[in-house]
Design goal:
This protein is of the alpha/beta class. The chain has one domain: Vaccinia Virus protein VP39 (Rossmann fold, 3-Layer(aba) Sandwich). The protein is 29% helix and 29% strand. The chain has 7 helices and 9 strands, in the order αααβαβαββαβββαββ. It has a 7-stranded mixed sheet with strand order 3-2-1-4-5-9-8, with helices on both faces. The radius of gyration is 17 Å and the shape is globular. Bound molecules: S-adenosylmethionine. S-adenosylmethionine binds next to helix 1 and strand 2.
């Protein structure tokens, strides 16, 4: 996902400030509906997020309840979590991505839902993961969702986050023939924001990544595993 340099050049799209949140999100969902299976073809190598989940799994209790926010096609993360013995709920705003995810990971439960609607009063998890999905929100919504995620975690719960390093807010970018809106941070800023939301960053890794289908310069992907600042069993 190219989020830097001149990605926004030549992309004709309304200022999202002029749209309601629902309009913005239905445009994002429609873009991912059109992308569907092609997402996995364009991004066949997902070593960073696979490594992050490998590191996360041993910290989770048997049969852990895990929320995969913006699960996309379910490959590889929902599948990896299910194979690791977790009971996984995948949520996404794109009906088409969820259709593919249900086919790829029939053992998981899937919900068509915007991540801003996560309800910590009604659902709790041993872990939440968000692989390159939080980056589709805006800088004003990301801290709100981080707060929801932290409150939805049991004491000692873990949050696995994958982002692209970039200094942008709600920037339109061309992506596999569609226009998507993305937000990014420099890693120090991202770390600071996680701390402010009450997380402790326990593990951090950065990787240089170039999608198979482009000649573009690599982008920097950031992977963080965070605790929610509480010990397991202290609630
Ligand atoms: C870059 S893809 C990543 C998919 C998957 N997590 C992976 O790593 O392969 C981003 C996904 O987030 C979903 N998404 C974007 N905005 C969302 C939102 N507000 N709530 C839930 N899902 C969202 C998109 O539909 C898409 O499936």
């Amino acid at each position: 996902m190219r989020m830097t340099e001149n990605d926004a050049a030549g992309v004709e799209t309304p200022d999202s400030g002029a749209m309601s949140w629902e309009e913005r999100e239905s445009a994002q969902a429609a873009a991912y509906d059109a992308i569907g299976d092609r997402y996995d073809e364009a991004f066949p190598h997902k070593d960073g997020q696979i490594g992050m989940v490998e590191r996360l799994l041993p910290d989770l209790p048997p049969g852990a309840r895990v929320l995969d926010l913006g699960c996309g096609t379910g490959t590889p993360t929902t599948r990896q979590l299910v194979d690791g013995g977790c009971r996984v709920t995948g949520t996404d705003i794109s009906p088409r991505m969820l259709e593919v995810a249900k086919r790829n990971v029939p053992e998981a439960r899937f919900l068509l839902r915007d991540m801003v609607d996560l309800d910590p009063e009604r659902e709790t998890y041993d872990a939440v993961v968000s692989c390159f999905s939080l980056l589709h929100l805006t800088r004003d919504r990301i801290p709100v969702v981080l707060d929801l995620v932290r409150r939805a975690l049991v004491p000692g719960g873990r949050f696995g986050l994958a982002m692209v390093e970039a200094d942008v807010d709600d920037a339109p970018i061309p992506f596999l023939g569609q226009t998507l809106r993305v937000t990014g941070y420099f890693r120090d800023e991202l770390r600071g924001m996680l701390h402010s939301a009450g997380f402790t960053v326990e593990h951090e890794r950065t990787l240089s990544y170039a999608p198979a289908s482009t000649q573009a310069r690599p982008e920097i992907q950031i992977f963080m595993i965070c605790g929610n600042g509480e010990e397991r069993g202290t609630a």
